[in-house]
């Protein structure tokens, strides 16, 4: 009887240890002294499986209003599928990208244009930047762009991500945690600032 109780207790503890661990980070999006939006980043890990969900809302009337949602699934630190969608409420202005692993390749549907990324593993994505400092990483996959983007360390916890149109977002980390993103705009810069 004692052995049976020990076995049941052992199995129960093992099951609880495999329970999903979750991290949630909240950010404000600021333009000048005004809060114009928010971002919620959630990462759930269970064994070798990881899920990341990013929800972003921006309302900077009359210049911009949009929602951005990114959902990524990984197994053994390799991206399996990523869905990214930016909606504005204006007809023809929405953007989306779906990246899906297919064997050793990825199929990408970026705003209706299809492409294939051959013989590679997508190991790091932009969504992950909310959860770890990208030491020694020089290229990172953008879920929304459906492409790899250059990432450069500037030192002192600062990293510069270059977008396809040439804009450069600067990510700032303190003790390995993302605390701020500086995003250049036509009339200044927006800041993404960690609040929890």
Average pLDDT value?
Answer: 91
Low-pLDDT sequence parts: 4-18
The whole-angstrom Rg is: 19 Å
Spatial gap, N to C terminus: 48 Å
Q: Could you say which structural class the secondary elements and strand pairing correspond to?
A: mainly beta
User: Could you spell the SSE succession in H and E letters?
Assistant: HEEEEEEEEEEEEEE
Main pleated-sheet profile: 14 strands, antiparallel
| Beta-strand content bin | over 45%
- What is the spatial order of strands in the main beta sheet? 8-7-6-5-4-3-2-1-14-13-12-11-10-9
The total count of strands amounts to 14
Assign a percent range to the helix content. under 10%
What's the tally of helices? 1
Q: What's the domain count? A: 1
Shape: globular
Word description of this protein:
This protein has one helix at residues 2-17, and strands at 21-31, 34-46, 49-60, 64-75, 78-87, 95-102, 105-110, 113-117, 139-142, 147-155, 158-162, 168-174, 177-185, 188-194. It is mostly beta strands. The chain has one domain. It has a 14-stranded antiparallel beta sheet, with no helix packed on it. A hairpin with a 2-residue loop joins strand 13 and strand 14 (188-194).
